[in-house]
């Protein structure tokens, strides 16, 4: 079902029709709708089914309509709150810009009906963090903290799951969440330094109100940035993938695509972006991402080409088999291991308490260490040489972009490969 949903969302209409016919024959539309809701792609799913003129039958038809309406309503509420936050920060003289979901809604989808958001991501300068927290308190937003702000900041810098990003979540009484970000990577490339990204932001109307959102070029880079942070797990990055297609089309229409791709390569995001645009072009040869994939491939080094091929393989492998354990990725990531070691030395109990609070927020309950270790052992037992190569490439690329686009040492020359597992 995972791979079928991905093909339904990304393929050209002829291939998508084949997938739809198979799902109809197997009477699996209810499962597809539930999975689409979990992935946050119901508007896209409904759009594709409408174009294909698919009759889902009940109860799947009713479920799709109700779930989509509820999801769009929640997303619209969050978008409205995000607009108010941006307005309030501007009134207080705090430079800020929305990115990820709200920026995509503003620039690509022209409203929340076409793109769902789970929270609102806003970039601010590090020196404005306390002023921003104070300002958002006036709107009813409070930090989701376990302990002091100082403890949280130390946790963020040591937790490998943040991949160098530094951010703080705040929520209001309606459980709408705003994530304030002030750093994108441990040592971000100059192109990804937050003040520069904010300075390049543009004013775009969202829900009838002009607000500051990242430029299309930065929208493209940050979509790839988030995808690689999430280890290219399809359910975590599918909306980023769709956004990348949209950003490519918008930039091409403005004559700005080549410049944006050059910046991506300078940031260490050339290989990830080549992988993601290649995946889109592989599913649909008419995709707006295809020209970007061709330009990136033409300019890529042999090392980047090989890395992109393996990253694309990893994405497709996870689409078929499910996500690779994050703990396995940490095991091969020197920076992550150093961060974990620092947590042990500098206060493991405090670190674990904050980790449990975050796991409860994300999963509804903390993940027991025994379960985590068991999952790690099972994943290692199924780690074939091909999968190991994919993971090692992922780690090298993550290390490169977290360190300001540093060269990815250790990737030997080879042209892109077809997907393998």
Kindly describe this structure.
Among the domains are: 2-57, no CATH class; 75-214, Beta Polymerase, domain 2. 63% of the residues lie in helices and 8% in strands. The protein is globular and about 55 Å long. It is α+β, with helices and mostly antiparallel strands and 421 residues long. The strands form two sheets. A five-stranded mixed sheet has the order 1-2-5-4-3, sandwiched between helices. Residues 406-421 have low confidence and may be disordered. Helix 1 packs antiparallel against helix 2 (13-26), helix 2 crosses helix 4 (42-52) and helix 3 (29-39) runs parallel beside helix 5. It has helices spanning 2-10, 13-26, 29-39, 42-52, 60-91, 101-109, 129-137, 149-158, 194-199, 216-229, 234-254, 257-266, 270-283, 290-299, 302-321, 326-331, 334-363, 369-381, 385-402; strands at residues 96-99, 120-124, 142-143, 166-171, 177-183, 202-206, 209-213.
Highlighted features:
single chain, 421 residues, alpha+beta, Beta Polymerase, domain 2, five-stranded mixed beta sheet, 8% strand, globular, disordered C terminus
Radius of gyration of CA atoms, rounded to a whole number: 21 Å
Helix content: 55-70%
How are the strands ordered across the major sheet? 1-2-5-4-3
How does the helix and strand content classify structurally?
A: alpha+beta
Query: Uncertain regions: pLDDT < 50 for 5+ in a row?
Result: 406-421
